[in-house]
Amino acid sequence: MVARTSPRYDAADTDLGALADPARFHESLTLPLEDRGWLTGALRTMMLARACEERIGDMVTSGKIRCPCHLAIGQEAAAVGVARPLRASDRVFGAHRSHAHYIALGGSVRKLMAEVLGRDTGASRGMGGSMHLIDREHGLHGTVPIVGATIPIAVGAALAAKMDGRGDVAVSFFGDGATEEGGFHESMNLAAALKVPVLFVAENNMFSSHLHISLRQPHASVARYAVAHDVPAWRVDGNDVVAVAAAACEAVARMRVEPGPAFIEAVTYRWRGHVGARDDEDVGVSRGGDLPAWRQRDPVRRLFEALVAVGDADTGLLGRLEAELKAEVEAAWAQAQGDPFPAPDALLARVYGGAR
Amino acid sequence: MVARTSPRYDAADTDLGALADPARFHESLTLPLEDRGWLTGALRTMMLARACEERIGDMVTSGKIRCPCHLAIGQEAAAVGVARPLRASDRVFGAHRSHAHYIALGGSVRKLMAEVLGRDTGASRGMGGSMHLIDREHGLHGTVPIVGATIPIAVGAALAAKMDGRGDVAVSFFGDGATEEGGFHESMNLAAALKVPVLFVAENNMFSSHLHISLRQPHASVARYAVAHDVPAWRVDGNDVVAVAAAACEAVARMRVEPGPAFIEAVTYRWRGHVGARDDEDVGVSRGGDLPAWRQRDPVRRLFEALVAVGDADTGLLGRLEAELKAEVEAAWAQAQGDPFPAPDALLARVYGGAR
Amino acid sequence: MAVRSYGVAIRDGFEHLMTEHREVFTIGQGLWSPWYVGSTMTDLEKQFGKARVIDTPVSELATTGAALGAALCGYRPIVIHPRVDFMLLAVDQIVTQAAKWRYMFGGDVNVPLTVRAIINRGGEQGAQHSQSLHAWFAHIPGLRVVMPATARDARDLLIASALCDDPVLYIDDRWLYGVEEEIGSPVELDLRLEGPRLVREGAELTLVGAGHSAWLCTEAARSLAENGVSCDVIDVRVLNPFDARLIVDSVRRTGRLLAVDGDWTTCGFAGEVIASVVEALPPGALRASPRRLTLPEAPAPTSAPLERSYYTNVADVVTAARQLVGVPGDSWE
Amino acid sequence: MAVRSYGVAIRDGFEHLMTEHREVFTIGQGLWSPWYVGSTMTDLEKQFGKARVIDTPVSELATTGAALGAALCGYRPIVIHPRVDFMLLAVDQIVTQAAKWRYMFGGDVNVPLTVRAIINRGGEQGAQHSQSLHAWFAHIPGLRVVMPATARDARDLLIASALCDDPVLYIDDRWLYGVEEEIGSPVELDLRLEGPRLVREGAELTLVGAGHSAWLCTEAARSLAENGVSCDVIDVRVLNPFDARLIVDSVRRTGRLLAVDGDWTTCGFAGEVIASVVEALPPGALRASPRRLTLPEAPAPTSAPLERSYYTNVADVVTAARQLVGVPGDSWE
Ligand SMILES: Cc1ncc(C[n+]2csc(CCOP(=O)(O)OP(=O)(O)O)c2C)c(N)n1
Ligand SMILES: Cc1ncc(C[n+]2csc(CCOP(=O)(O)OP(=O)(O)O)c2C)c(N)n1
Ligand SMILES: [Mg+2]
Ligand SMILES: [Mg+2]
Known about the structure:
Strand order of the largest sheet of chain C: 3-2-4-5-7-6-12
Largest sheet of chain C: 7 strands, mixed
Mean pLDDT of chain A: 95
Number of helices of chain C: 12
Largest interface: C-D, 60 and 60 residues
Radius of gyration of chain C: 20 Å
Oligomer: heterotetramer
Bound molecules: thiamine diphosphate, magnesium ion
């Protein structure tokens, strides 16, 4: 299966081919005829996620933020594209690098900033920091930093959705490294055996921490595992929000009517280092000199240029949005900094449930 | 890749096709021209394993043996065929159903009987029983009942063999159920990443305890996982000792010169129940009425008839061997019953190592 | 009132839960098997359907994680591990995910997950088919740990666990499945209000145990009483959060403590009982040094004679109790 | 003699092992990373080659099992888990396989496997990046558990672990990496002969801890001494098999015991220390009820103020000690 608007990639291919070539796909996107209205919003959301993370990165550098922050700058299209067909009653789970997932689903910037600052007003009431985000109102049921941990949890959320019988689905965002955890394979098989509506989204940025996938797996494409587990799979340019959205829409539409798992491999790249604001080359991790080229596969710029090309945006939009979002983030940051920390009794009061 | 003497099965096939059809492959084997001398020995070894397990089954029924015993009656060809290219310096690991592996490698019947009786003279000095067998002298480094547990251990034994640089290999015997454990997938990927000489042998008897594979996995053939992990795979009729041996010889010969993992799926069937001497239908497990037909795919009879056909055996051989082996097992059993239990101090003396 | 065995009482608990509470379902290995879980779930799948009584592949981690996921989405799943040993492949989901989920997301997320693990030892099964390790889980804040010792608790604490909004590890013991008791109809207890129970009153010694060990203590106390030694017997029932007050009050009266536990000694539950008591009592409150009766510091052996000496029996408890109260051996015939 | 930090001393241990013992190799996540394991393995792969310093996929279970397999075939692998939390995915291999392997195969099979786990907490990392759980592993017969508190032990106990023919869990703590000590050249100790060590002598109170907690006790004892309270300080070093005799003898003298442990209370190591001591001492030997200083019964929070109050510091130990010996607060200026 392939996403409509992107070149045909066979999920059975074991390697990424052109998708792994940083020199490719710098051109602006091909936009679908329908569904255009959404695209301007998608641009804004991707830029908002980036603005938040740039701010967070700066504050990590300045020492104002102390919790570990894993930035998804450069990977925004995967989050925003997958969010396209989702609704609040769906159940989304993420991992350690989930700021963009949180924003893509509609999470509050103020609560994100408050959370990374450990404030009681944060998304997780200051108990989790960057690596533990939740926003059930918008369908985000939890992100945690144990690699692969939320994959089986998403399968169970999908089982619940199937039992509910209202056509809701579960989504599990994870990285290429997570496919090396046995739990990932157990989860794929269990989802296939139970036929539950869970969308596995592998954001393959080809790195697990300091190690390129070629040092960890015999092949670079992880969609091959979906084939082995009999899970329908799409492999797309993860920096093409149109392609990601198309795959997600197709997969989710089917899952809503006929429960069963699906898999999307979104090939992408992170601009920053594994953790924090730096790029890791500063500490000696070789990224093969690919980083500058990957910056040219910018999901934001490629969508923006496409919108301009079809006349849905004027050339000034990018700058205006940048300024506007920067201000929005700045305001949220300022408010969050004034927010209170959890009260001392939160230390013990939040371990167990209250009166039934 | 396929084993020479068996019909061509593509490891990428997701289902077992004819191999899963109990009505097929009842005919006697096609023997290779070379390597015939070994086959009479192979017949004897398969029959010895069966004689041991029939005895053990009877003693379980009679209550003389109390430890849980998982019988491989009907599956002997997988153990004996894989043992063909192995030498004492190789490192073999098994699981809960490993009597046949132990015998195929040359293990002592007396020590097997003593072990299931919990005697100090047993293979594991009475500390492990049927589910924990070891015979390092013949290359068996351990069998344990935690499903999948020895798979990564075999990968490490292969890593050691690679470091030794003497061309030794490791072998991991496990069942179709074990492929549902995440550790199996982690191990396949790790073996591929480290390029270590480990032969994964999946004895696919299509059952995990009471559940047929169709209730546990979307497809019946587990070789598809080897394809996903880029491990060269053979799928063979597991009740054809010639086919199994051919695949094993081809795989091991390559591994000895060029370290790397390989995978054999041996499709077979167990005649007895999951544990003990009964067949499980007595306790309500449906085996789809396949059992009688599978008995016709008897690895022993098929080899014997082939040997008679080519004149390497006379029609009386089967009966003579049966009587001879029955007596051998009977004698070992009698001796083992007279053997001492471990001394009381063994309870605490065997936990930690002695003086360095 | 009806006479119920511990094993059948567990099944009664499932039947009550699945009849009265649509959000309860069970998932795990062996649920459609005639032997895996003994008498405790017989034909549940026929009664409630295979959609609510789900047998699974051999994937402990994913199965447990999936149950957690369903618990986060409005259900009250009970995930079954036919042996504690198998459950160890899923500790990340139990200990690092379920037990911490509410806390790391601010305290408001309910996690009504019940993990049922069965202690299944003896029968020459050996080292990998014998572990209990309840001390491990009692060590984890956020995870409630329950070990029933009677048929009534086997049923009612299972019900309470499933209806609790926190993750609960419910551990039952095959060695108790045959133990019978006359019990009324199911009761829906609030697990947060349950804790150790004084099951027998005495003056000279406090015997403490959980699960099968509580049964050993009760049996031993009976024979000790016949020999003129009267004991308090406390069935711990809920190991975490652990409320030692009842035990402390008892030892304040008896001045003697014997903690029995079918698990290893170092960092085990028996040690916790002793530590909690001596921390709470003033020095000099004890008439004898407290003592624990636990497994030898070795994995479980298979060989019959070794296995016999490995596990604690009623006579062992009686002997240890006798030594503690200083009753000379010869006065025992 | 040279001044060594705890972190660099660990690297010295690796260097000694890999230079002197060809059968030693290391495998685990982050071994080629500039940040995973701090200063403890810097450039080892450059010095000894990537064939003996192996970085791995994100597969804790298989990596640990593979190290065990190599240990069964003549090598002395050291498998690295950059966090205890990650290692939990591999407990089956450590606890049910490695720790029981020798026993279930008759006692003659050597299992020279070292599992090195790093305690890495604080820094607002939160509930899943903070656990120590050494009590879990000290609970397992067949598994030796070591926690160095000094630079010398960090190096020499690592060497002893790798050269031991039993599986060893070696747990080091990032909070100690900067602690310096003047030490001589590496020594090859026989781990079976190592145990708790009296690192400071006193009369009024016995302070006991392992790893970072031992460091807290030592620091606290220093400031207590300045205020006229003299303490025995015992660094446990080897948690399993646990030899409590030195602690028992100390408490017999001081009559007071404070067990400090950077882990949870229930079924934790501090409770084990108290239980072992009171079991061994006659009633009335204590001048005050023993006490433990442990983590609050909650997962680790992230928020700075909560995190500050969550972890035990030197002042907390001093305060608890002061209360135990009954020194009024005002005499403290
Ligand atoms: C179980 C576990 N093992 C190891 C780690 C350390 N770790 C944190 S993030 C990470 C990399 C994961 O890579 P990937 O899944 O590709 O996600 P990405 O960082 O690329 O977004 C690792 C190994 C962890 N957090 N959990
Ligand atoms: C980790 C673990 N989970 C579950 C079990 C229970 N169990 C014992 S054997 C078995 C079946 C395994 O099936 P398979 O791997 O196909 O081997 P077979 O019995 O068919 O030889 C199961 C589930 C176990 N021993 N270990
Ligand atoms: Mg990645
Ligand atoms: Mg099978």
